[in-house]
Amino acid sequence: MIVDIDLSPVHVLIIDDSRYARSFIKSALFSFGVRNVSEAGDGPDGITALRERKIDLVLVDHDMEPMDGVGFTRLVRAGEVECRDVPIIMVSGMAEMEKVIEARNAGVNEFLVKPVSADSLFRRVRNALVNPRPFVVTDAYVGPCRRTVQRPGVEGDDRRTAPPLPRPRPLVDVPPGIAQPTIRRAVEQGQQAAKDGGDKTSRKRFKAGTVIFREGDSGDEAYVVEAGRVLISKDVAGRQVTLGEINSHGIFGEMALIDDHPRMASALAAEDTICMVIPKAALKAQINRTPDLVILVVETLLHDIRKMGRELVEARARLKARRAAS
Question: Where is this region: Disordered (predicted)?
């Protein structure tokens, strides 16, 4: 995990009825560079805190009494406080799709499933602050825009008449001098190789809504996002579930450089996107010329493998607990 943003001016409010949970999140935030943290033990106290001080980001637990995180979010979005557009990250021990949808419809910006790791927390915090979504106010919904993908226009009665909203300015900046140096060098090396010609690397442009690859496709290249945004999703019981979002300088599709297995997930351009393409055949040729590119691929693979290992252990533990309870 690379902390590439200055969070020292950001004031975060943690709302959780567990003192232990608040302490863990507070410690993690401090490790990210956050220096201004307020705490509340329940939803009503959280509302009071929002009225009394300027808060830039809220982390709220889902399961609380007398007011849960969804109820808190609805009050905030309804205008119970002046800062109704404050970014809200919901932390929940329940990962069921209906809970995620309920929180999303209440107006949360991000949803984070327990147990929380420092890495997953930082990624949610970073995304909420660096990539804020437009704030929508309608009779039916108030909150961050739920239209995560700018799809091509649809004709007929189902066509959305409202154009995509402009993206607001990031709440914090990513200084170019410290932002993920290995990734920056890798991109620069890849760009230089592309200029030199040959089949080393190339650049591709994808219009918003374009499917870059589908789950189950064969693959022989990976991608580094130079500009734009890509959504990674997987088919779960016939429904596309978003697994993550790849932003500038992020890499995806890297497993194709290692094995010949089909793609494990789908990738979709959420907006007009430019990617540097890394063909499998070029990887060996690039080892000596672009060492940082190789480091980037290996580090990303190791991170993903570790993450999958943790998720497998957690899934097995949940399955074992369910079997014991039945």
Answer: 148-176
